[in-house]
Amino acid sequence: MSFTSLIETANLQLRRVPAWPAYPLAFGYVGWLVWLGATGGLGVEPVVALQRALGEAALYLLIAGLAVTPLRRHAGLNLLKFRRALGLSCFIFVVAHFLAWAVLDLQSLGRVWADIVKRPYITVGMAGFALLIPLALTSNNWSIRHLGARWRQLHRLTYAAALLGAVHYIMLVKGFQMRPLIFLAVILILLLLRLRPGRLAMRFQRG
Ligand code: HEM
């Protein structure tokens, strides 16, 4: 089987796969992690382990969402129908990640702002979270219809949110660690793959 016919078969099969199960799966995974944490299944530091698992899940989904366009453009694989579910599931994990920190870790709303201002990696994570809020609020057909071309412009915030998420990870790890750098490298590669050299050259010539 050639690569092209393999992709065509995959596209045909994927048409039959619904996107909606992503939401119960995301909520289910959050619930399962919380249950594990509460019953001793997340080790001696359950809150930290919970934050980590939720933060990583959010970053994986941000990356998966960023991969949709390059995969379609460069490999012909059409995952467009899953993009909204990927983005909103990512948001579910970021909200849960934030709540695990604010409610279980800090345990005081007063300390939330103090920590955001005091700890640069929290500031950066919070900036990523803030960018995802308008994206989540406009991930519906009504917003797409009403915002028109501005919807696409607004949704470019995903690039910044993913970069902030990766930088937040790099800033919080102690010492030199490859894992967060690999996340950043993958995000940068996916962003580079979105660039269209032809269009860039035209813009450059127009000045
Ligand atoms: C785009 C948004 C965000 C993404 C993608 C993200 C992702 C991550 C990742 C990947 C980790 C490290 C997981 C590991 O160690 O394996 C992490 C840790 C952490 N994040 Fe976030 N994060 C985001 C936003 C936030 C926000 C808004 C807060 C709180 C205001 C926050 C607080 C933390 C804390 C406290 C840790 C450290 C847990 C620990 O190791 O003690 N993050 N995050």
TrEMBL record:
BP-aspect Gene Ontology terms: protein repair
Membrane-spanning segments: 20-37, 57-73, 85-104, 124-142, 154-172, 178-195
InterPro entries: Fe3_Rdtase_TM_dom, MsrQ-like
Record-level GO cellular component terms: plasma membrane
Name the UniProt record assigns to this protein: Protein-methionine-sulfoxide reductase heme-binding subunit MsrQ
Location (main, coarse): membrane
Sequence similarity: Belongs to the MsrQ family.
Ranges of residues in domain Ferric oxidoreductase: 55-165
NCBIfam families, per the entry: PRK05419.1-5 (NF003833)
Keywords for this protein: Cell membrane, Electron transport, Flavoprotein, FMN, Heme, Iron, Membrane, Metal-binding, Transmembrane, Transmembrane helix, Transport
GO MF entry, a single one: FMN binding
Bilayer topology: Multi-pass membrane protein
Lineage of producing organism: Bacteria, Pseudomonadati, Pseudomonadota, Alphaproteobacteria, Rhodobacterales
Any Pfam family the entry gives: Ferric_reduct
Organism: Roseovarius nubinhibens (strain ATCC BAA-591 / DSM 15170 / ISM)
Entry's localization field: Cell membrane; Membrane
Cell membrane is among the record's keywords: yes
Its job: Part of the MsrPQ system that repairs oxidized periplasmic proteins containing methionine sulfoxide residues (Met-O), using respiratory chain electrons. Thus protects these proteins from oxidative-stress damage caused by reactive species of oxygen and chlorine generated by the host defense mechanisms. MsrPQ is essential for the maintenance of envelope integrity under bleach stress, rescuing a wide series of structurally unrelated periplasmic proteins from methionine oxidation.
